[in-house]
Amino acid sequence: MSQPTSASFLPLTRRNLADSWRGLLGWTAGVAGAIFLYVPLYSSFSGENAGFDEVIKSIPEGLSSTLGFEDLTSGAGYVQATFLGLIGFVLFTIAATLWSSAAIAGDEESGSLELTLAHGVSRVQIMVERSLGVMLRLLWLSIVSALLILALNDSSGIDLEPAHVVAGCAALLGLGVLAASFGLAVGAITGRRAFASAAAAGISLLGYILNSLGNQSADVEWLHSLSPYHWAFGNSPLSEGVDGGSLGLIFGISAVVLALGGVVFNRRDVSA
Amino acid sequence: MTYAIETHALTKRYGSNSALEGLDLAVETGSVFGMIGPNGAGKTTAMRLLLDIIRPTSGSATVLGKSPIAGGAALRRDIGFLPGELLLEGRITGRSLLKHYAAISGPVAPGRIDALSERLGLDITRHVRTLSKGNKQKLGLVQAFMHEPKLLVLDEPTSGLDPLVQQEFLSMVREAQHNGQTVFLSSHVLSEIQNAADQVAVLRNGTVVKVGDVASLRASAIRRVVIDFTDAAADDIRTALIALPQLDNLTVTAGDVVHVTGTVEGHIDALVKAIASFHVVDLRVEEQDLESSVIDLYSNEATK
Asked: Using a CB-CB distance cutoff of 8 angstroms, which residues of chain A are in contact with residue B85?
């Protein structure tokens, strides 16, 4: 018998990536644009003599602490406040929300999941491979972020340790992965894209709000301990380096959430 | 005798809504088995249970000797499935999509995708979202047939196909049967079953109301008769015919030519003998197609 086309390595992940590379190109451009917009401005705005500090002091304290603008004079503080903690976080959250809700729930609502399931793949395989597809795309965005920040490291004067840049982008990736895990799991459990999107965006928003509230006063600082956003960025990875415990917690919760989603997905009916 | 599909009291309920209620089916290995019934009779539900896309509320199913849940992915490699509503989207060519499905199903022989596509007149270089409904259906048929599965489960396979392609599909079904493959197909277009299936199950409200071969279903079919008489009084004819138990829906129109219509269930022997004493100008016995006779079957069931 001739050797026919047969099972290949990670067929669902490869399909997922092949279907989405155009979108990923757009997201890559978006992340690159944000970095090229904000990071070079550091030297002109926030250098030690630029006086941007005065601008920050003129902003009401509550607002600047909500936005995480307390420390814009250091390179690490500036990149954290502008890209990692704000625009990058928003971009990663939106990407994670869109991709994770589309991966299973969106496919089920469009009716194409039924035909995939009728083939020689298990539910668990679908959950694992599609999740992997989403995570790999988020990983790509975080690698691009790290490389571009490093590329601008000298010219912009932000002057960060390369290992710290990697740590910061790993923290950002963690938040994206966490949001995507909630989107994937809720999508796998309910089969509803709207619920999946709400879960993914919701966990990011909740973390951000808890962090901001915790910033307001010492009385409510304990809210930080509930905020994934604070877990990721609370120990200032750009200046202090990688925070293994926090990253472990974020990725660990993501894995548990995904596993729960997979278990329910394996038991329920898939709708047409 | 072995069965490619066996179900026992297979039941699927959604809340208090029953989609399938105690379905008992036995599909012989190597046969072409048709399932007909109106929309909502449970045909699609039954097929989705066999593919483990949904899980039964109670009862059991055996597909190629295994339960769909226990058989899992390995069992589904031996099945080719065409869903009733085929939704294909995306910026992907037909060929790429078929290769993807080949990667997650049983092995596909080289050249098989091209041969099948050519046979059905499908252009697999086009993006699937630009395909018409009929062409999407062809693509669905190619992905179901391409790995020469032991069992083909086809939900409304000819919907959207033009008559020539329908003929080609029927010959593909016959070839599959010739190869020893089992074909389980559903339709509400009964003419399709009439030409393809050895055995037919009629579904209504989630249960089988009748199983039989096409010939036996046809034998129990209801025939419409039209008879014209001359040189006879309408009343005499009416008196002679009204006594026949097999004859229903009798109408007698008086005139120079007495025009009689009615329906006969079963053999027409008694009717022919009853009209023999009159002068018959014209006698037409019109066999209803399976479709009408099955619809009669439904209405008979409904009035019981």
From this structure: 111, 272
**Tens of pLDDT, residues A219-231:** 999 999 999 999 9
Q: Cα dihedral sign for B185, B190, B195, B197?
A: positive
Going by pLDDT thresholds of 50, 70 and 90, the confidence category of residue A45 is low
Give contacts of B48 with chain A, Cβ < 8 Å.
Answer: 114, 272
Domain positions in chain A: 11-267
What are the structural domains, with CATH classification, of chain B? 3-218 (3.40.50.300), 222-287 (3.30.70.260)
Nearest Cβ partner for A114 among B79, B83, B102: B83
- Of residues B135 and A65, more confidence is placed in B135
Segment B261-270, tens digit of pLDDT: 988 877 788 8
Q: Specify the amino acid at residue A181.
A: S
> Is A60 an 8 Å CB contact of chain B?
no
Chain A from 99 to 118: CB within 8 A of any B CB: 110-112, 114-118
pLDDT digits (tens, 9 = 90+) for A110-128: 989 999 999 999 999 999 9
Q: How far apart are CA B209 and CA B173, in angstroms?
A: 25
Average pLDDT value for residue range B26-39: 91
CB pairs under 8 A between A and B: 87
Is B40 an 8 Å CB contact of chain A? no
Contact B103 A8 (CB under 8 A): yes
Contact B100, A15 (CB under 8 A): yes
